[in-house]
């Protein structure tokens, strides 16, 4: 389940070499009030991020998802109920992805084709179904371990210890354990990380923006 492993098929994990771009990604939302607090922090810094949403929370609070989209952020599919797809059949994976897609479509209409597997778990059958549905799997190469973090400092250290440029950073604005789960630490660390890296000349981009840069560089190199 290594997030950057490619042996089960290609997934996007960030830029191939050091660059002055970073992509912030948030999983398991929408979540109240932490998604809204996060939107305030991102707006304050004029930064756009990428959110991987759980369908059942989308169904519960489509209004929060509309706020995320109206603020200019990118949203993607994180399944309906957040199962570990490694242990699910192709049919079950398909059902989870379609249910989430439908919930997001009902809330905001068209959205990105990005997908992030819960727990990063995937195997060939998972990725086959993902591709059949036209979805693009997105992993990460830096995590704040914010699902079990004792403090804001802890999350900040986990991230800053790994950032080299061109990274996809995994954080959480929600939790599959419960709607309303406390993510205030992830919101605060976002504020700190943006201030820190902007001061060092980094630009924060969405995952699709980072992907476009990568493919431009690839075609320029060939
Ligand atoms: Zn998740």
SSE sequence, one letter per element:
EHEHHEHEHEEHEHEH
Q: What oligomerization state is this entry in?
A: single chain
CATH topology: TIM Barrel
Task: Estimate nothing, just give the exact number of structural domains.
Answer: 1
Q: Describe the global form.
A: globular
The total beta strand count reads 8
Count the helices. How many? 8
- Helices and strands: which structural class? alpha/beta
CATH class: Alpha Beta
Give the averaged pLDDT, no decimals.
93
Q: Which CATH architecture? A: Alpha-Beta Barrel
CATH superfamily: Glycoside hydrolase/deacetylase
Report on the structure:
The protein has a single domain (21-221), classed as Glycoside hydrolase/deacetylase (TIM Barrel, Alpha-Beta Barrel), CATH 3.20.20.370. The model has no long low-confidence stretch (mean pLDDT 93). It has 222 residues and is α/β, with parallel strands linked by helices. Helix 1 runs parallel beside helix 7 (184-199), helix 3 (62-70) crosses helix 4 and helix 6 crosses helix 7. The protein has helices at residues 34-45, 55-60, 62-70, 90-108, 124-132, 152-160, 184-199, 207-221, and strands at 21-29, 50-53, 74-77, 114-115, 136-137, 142-143, 167-172, 203-204. The protein is 43% helix and 14% strand. The longest helix has 19 residues, at 90-108. The two termini are 31 Å apart. It has 8 helices and 8 strands, in the order E-H-E-H-H-E-H-E-H-E-E-H-E-H-E-H. Strands 1, 2, 3, 6, 7 and 8 form a 6-stranded parallel β-sheet that branches. It has a two-stranded parallel ribbon with strand order 4-5. Bound molecules: zinc ion. Residues 27-28, 78, 82, 118, 176 line the site of zinc ion.
């Amino acid at each position: 389940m290594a997030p950057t492993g490619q042996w089960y098929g290609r997934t996007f994990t960030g830029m191939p070499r050091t660059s002055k771009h970073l992509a912030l990604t948030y999983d398991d939302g929408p979540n109240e009030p932490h998604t809204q607090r996060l939107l305030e922090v991102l707006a304050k810094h004029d930064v756009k991020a990428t959110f991987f949403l759980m369908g059942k929370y989308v169904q519960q609070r489509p209004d929060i998802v509309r706020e995320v989209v109206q603020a200019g952020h990118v949203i993607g599919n994180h399944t309906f109920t957040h199962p570990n797809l490694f242990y699910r059949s192709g049919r079950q994976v398909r059902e989870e992805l379609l249910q989430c897609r439908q919930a997001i479509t009902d809330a905001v209409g068209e959205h990105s084709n990005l997908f992030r597997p819960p727990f990063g778990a995937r195997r060939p059958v998972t990725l086959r179904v993902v591709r059949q549905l036209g979805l693009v799997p997105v992993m990460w190469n830096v995590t704040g371990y914010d699902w079990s973090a004792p403090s804001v400092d802890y999350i900040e250290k986990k991230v800053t210890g790994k950032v080299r440029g061109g990274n996809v950073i995994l954080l959480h604005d929600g939790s599959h354990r419960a709607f309303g789960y406390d993510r205030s630490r992830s919101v605060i660390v976002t504020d700190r990380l943006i201030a820190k890296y902007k001061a060092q000349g980094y630009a924060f981009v969405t995952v699709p923006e980072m992907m476009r840069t990568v493919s431009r560089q690839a075609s320029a190199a060939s």
